[in-house]
Amino acid sequence: EVQLVESGGGLVKPGGSLRLSCAASGFTFSNAWVNWVRQAPGKGLEWVGRIRKKTDGGTTDYAAPVKGRFTISRDDSKNTLYLQMNSLKIEDTAVYYCTRQGAAASFDYWGQGTLVTVSS
Amino acid sequence: QSALTQPPSASGSPGQSVTISCTGTSSDVGGYNYVSWYQQHPGKAPKLMIYEVTKRPSGVPDRFSGSKSGNTASLTVSGLQAEDEADYYCSSYAGSNNFVFGTGTKVTVL
Prior knowledge:
- The structure holds two protein chains of two kinds.
- Helix content of chain A is 0%, strand content 51%.
- Chain A is mainly beta.
- Chain B is mainly beta.
- Chain B has strands at 9-12, 18-23, 35-40, 47-50, 64-69, 72-77, 86-93, 99-101, 105-109.
């Protein structure tokens, strides 16, 4: 059974930093492209970014609102995805989900999410 | 990148059909057959229901179907059941290694 379990969320002040983790199991993590998607309270889904598998270069892509502030990385030896968030803004407040990239640019498995609250 | 446009709400009685639209541009929905649909119950993670415009993942009932015409994709839920009451989001590849989601539609089963 595919499982994605996020952790690391919490309350942080504007301008602060936070690192989220996503532990994967039930599939070969090193073969997967994985994404972060967020959802502000009461709002819709927003794609944050993704990282390719290492044999595809291990490169990353980011949405414009987070580019230059957020960094996605992976540790295939630990089957874990990371999201380093710096220079956090109030508008970054959201539940952050990790998702596996499926066929045809879909997101086929999702974690349960972790809440990040940016507030003074 | 602007969000894809969906109606805020849709409803139908049990057994009826409901269709949700998802309107984008030629740079996203109209430019690629990479439209997917997600169901989200309150407090839960989204679940993939349709990918590549029309395909259903294993385990998704065939009451769910997708289509696309030009810059607008659609999700139809036939034979509505109480458990179909949820928020639904479309998503599309938007080129240049970007993705965009729809604004979301709340489906109510009357």
